[in-house]
Amino acid sequence: MKKFEDLGFCKVDTDREQRTGYPEVIYGEGKSADHISQIMSRLIDHHEKVMVTRLSKEKALSLQETFPQVKYDETSRILLYGEPARRYPGEILVLCAGTSDLFVAEEAALTAEWMGCKVKRVYDVGVAGIDRLLAHREEITKASVLIVVAGMEGALPSVVGGMVKRPVIAVPTSVGYGAHLEGLTPLLSMLTSCASGMSVVNIDNGFGAAYQAALILQLASEGGENEKPLP
């Protein structure tokens, strides 16, 4: 029995939620609005929810004509349909170094919320003004998982990693000047961090960081009694 639907231009993985816990997510860049619309229709039929990442405003407006219930966020370029089927205990804290990093931070925050996680945001707390970060020390130490987004030299995740006993997921961004090399410099900085146990995702990959964080909360909630159904 096929576990995908062949639309000719693509094969929609309708079994992914059964295998992994979450439906297939549509990567919007490089796809036409018509193709995205067809894929969305199949995913909505099977899962009653869908997420599209890296979607331009122009395509979002076109899709809203077909799916008026969708919500589009211009900062993250994410389009959402439907609500999560469950809520995990715990909290993901998304931190970012500067406001230029918001497009990645919000991609992480909205993805995690759509996957059923409670999310708190702490933005513009880069190491150039360390007091801004330390003002949120209590929130930082209480979080279950931390997603830390930074461009430039990428120092913020290392600092946060030295403050907590929880998983830290570092996200380098393409924000920075010349020798920043479009995100390569903070990526290498995070990979060579002295903060123990920190994991690193690809440049600008807020989606990947959120997915990993949600899987951590999902694992922590397994056993049934801790998982909270939606009211």
Structure explained in plain terms:
The chain is an alpha/beta fold and 231 residues long. The protein has two domains: 5-81, Translation Initiation Factor IF3 (2-Layer Sandwich); 88-220, Rossmann fold, CATH 3.40.50.1970. Helices cover 36% and strands 19% of the residues. It has nine helices and 13 strands. Strands 9-8-10-11-12 form a five-stranded parallel beta sheet. Strands 3-4-6-5 form a four-stranded mixed beta sheet, sandwiched between helices. It has a two-stranded antiparallel sheet with strand order 1-2. α4 (102-114) runs parallel beside α9 (206-221). It is globular, with a radius of gyration of 18 Å. It starts with a strand and ends with a strand. 40% of the residues are buried.
Which helices and strands, and how do they pair?
Layout: E1 5-6, E2 11-12, H1 16-20, E3 26-27, H2 33-47, E4 50-53, H3 57-66, E5 71-73, E6 78-81, E7 86-87, E8 92-96, H4 102-114, E9 119-122, H5 130-134, H6 137-142, E10 145-150, H7 156-161, E11 168-172, H8 184-191, E12 199-200, H9 206-221, E13 228-229
Parallel strand pairs: 3-4, 8-9, 8-10, 10-11, 11-12
Antiparallel strand pairs: 1-2, 4-6, 5-6, 7-13
GO molecular function, one term: hydrolase activity
Protein name: PurE domain-containing protein
InterPro entries: P2CMN_synthase_LarB (IPR039476), PurE_dom (IPR000031)
Task: Quickly list its features.
PurE_dom; hydrolase activity; four-stranded mixed beta sheet; 2 domains; alpha/beta; five-stranded parallel beta sheet; Translation Initiation Factor IF3; 9 helices; 36% helix; 231 residues; Rossmann fold
